Amino acid sequence: EVLTEDPETAFCTLANREDLNPEEGSIYHCLYQFTRNEKLTETNKLLCDVCTQRHYGPKNNIKSERYVYTNAKKQMLISLAPLVLTLHLKRFQQAGFNLRKVNRHIKFPEVIDLAPFCTVKCKNVAEGNTKVLYSLYGVVEHSGTMRSGHYTAYAKMRSMNNHLSDFVLQGPSPQALETEPVKGQWFHISDTHVQAVPAAKVLSSQAYLLFYERLL
User: In what residue span(s) does the USP domain sit (predicted)?
Assistant: First the structure.
């Protein structure tokens, strides 16, 4: 589906992403890089149907080699903020013909704001809100190599989020968003072994998957 957007707002976000200045090696830096504005030029030019029809007339009379390609901008932004945000970190890199495990620690917060990565017309954000906050409740960690290893998890035991239930039933609320993480106790789970751990241990883990629930 091709939509015509106002060029003044097509690349605008709910919060100014340029104010972020994200720290390298953080989840904010990963999101910033993933949603950066890209220029499509030279061999990456965009095939433009509108430009082609403007130049040659109706498309059914145009041979494929005569299509018009044009410079363009591309940006991936969030158009629908999820109730549960799952972030999957790429933990491998190509090394020649082999894949290598990436063991670098990526910093991630207990509360994350998605607003700098959401389109200004994000569908399920109440008008006037400039924050889209999420609270961390689960982490999956992998130890080992690309050939073998072990998965463990951190999970937060917490009370039911009634605001989240209301959101599902009634939609977004214009009320002020919470800024604190959902209170609860963290546990480390490894096979049948379960142990209570402090939040600091969770935040120092080498996360592979991050699970956040929306704060309302």
Answer: 1-215
